[in-house]
Amino acid sequence: xxxxxxxxxxxxFIGLLLLSCDSTVSPxxxxxxxxxxxxLIINPQTFTFTPSDGFKDTTLTVLISATIENVDSETMPxxxxxxxxxxxxxxxxxxxxxxxxxxxxxxxxxxxxxxxFNEYIVEVYAYNAAGGGNFFQTTISVEGFSNNPxxxxxxxxxxxxxxxxxxxxSVSFTAKTTDIDGQTTIEGVFLRLISQVSGExxxxxxxxxxxxxxxxxxxANDSVFTASFPVSSTNQLQTYDIxxxxxxKGGLVSDTVKTTFSIRGN
Length: 266
What we know:
Shape: elongated
Number of strands: 20
Strand content: over 45%
């Protein structure tokens, strides 16, 4: 069931120009007469949902407004909204000229849910028939709330490793983690490293990564989160309790999965 969240109208546009915006504009030739997007304002720029909004699909309505200089009859002003993570096109269209010269605006809609955590890139552009012009970018953030906690499906670490006689060796710990509300709702996956001799080690809990590079993670965005630790010739021979858990952006915590890991001598 759709429940539109309407936050603004075109009649409010003049007052919005007094607001500042944090955006990035492409280079443009100041000596030319090409159209130039000099200001972009999105209202609202952040949507925040709470449990009081309920678990449902919803439509976000945003006002996209821009100041464009050097506009003539051949100027083609428009906008594009894309998902920041996937670059998927959400919507696009033309900007409409307003009563005040150089002002262009449009209301656009984004379909989402109250449990979503998304960020969108909004790009406004203005080009003439000769290809001169520029574009201006900013973002829209959607901060939902959690419906389901993340789940640790599987963990993997060696039961024991032999302490090297010299140097060190790297040992990886992995946790396959999912969230029914979407992988982007996972705030982090962590492990606690607790010595059965001396207690929890300094720096615990440690974060695991799924970016294909950090901590020897093999592949990005495959739901397998990884942390790696060096075992050197100076490590004590002992056993550790390993406690894996995950937290989502709404603060919900998964069940804890426990394993052990031992450093053995020759």
